[in-house]
Every structure is written in C-alpha cells, then in structure tokens.
Amino acid sequence: MSPPPTLPYPAVKPSPSVDDCLRSARFSDYITWAGATVGTWSYGFIVGKPARFAMAGLMAGIGFTFGSIVLVQNARGRLMGFRENAREVKMFAAKEE
Fold first, then answer.
1. Which of 10, 30, 78, 82 lies at 20 to 30 Å from 52 by C-alpha?
2. 51, exposed or middle or buried, with CB in 10 Å at 0-12, 13-18, 19+?
3. 26 CB contacts (<8 Å, ≥6 apart)?
C-alpha cells in the first residue's frame, strides 16, 4: 500500500459530504453551474429543430447535472486540500494533523 499523498494545501475536511461542498461553494462555482445549464439549453434550442423546447429542456437537464458534478468536484478538492483553499481555511479552520 502506498503512503498517502502530500497535500499542497491544508486539509479542511478529509472526507467532505455533498452538504459540506454546497456550503463551501464559491461564486465562481455557481457561475460555472449556471453557465453549463444556460449553454446547453441554448445548444439544445439551436440544434433541436422539430422540437426545440423539448430538446432545450433535455439539454438543460444534462447541463445542470454536469454543472452540479463540477461544483462538487471543485469544492471537494478545496476542502480536501488538493486545490487552493485559503477562504475555506478561514471559514472552517483547517483540521490539525
């Protein structure tokens, strides 16, 4: 078994839940989430010629799901110490090891 990786930033929560991720989401995460939803809705509307609004709704659902996954992935990375997390350290106080 290999040793645990050295983290470039302090770990705030070693195993964050989805609720922790949503509580620590940054404005840029929400912009990414909304951008993915709006962008895919637009794509579905442009491409889905016979049923534009049905295709746009389907694509918005796909974009919303993608944006949700990216938001949670970025927030988990910050809480676990793999991404820059100065704001989260101030908010939650880093876990002492």
1. 30
2. exposed
3. 75, 87
Please state the domain extents for the chain: 28-92
Q: How sure is the predictor about 95, in pLDDT bands with cuts at 50, 70 and 90?
A: low
pTM: 0.85
- 19-40 confidence digits (pLDDT tens): 999 999 999 999 999 999 999 9
Task: State both tokens at 38.
Answer: 């709006």
Cα angle 9-11-13, degrees, rounded to a multiple of 5:
155
Among 28, 48, 24, residue whose Cα is nearest residue 36: 28
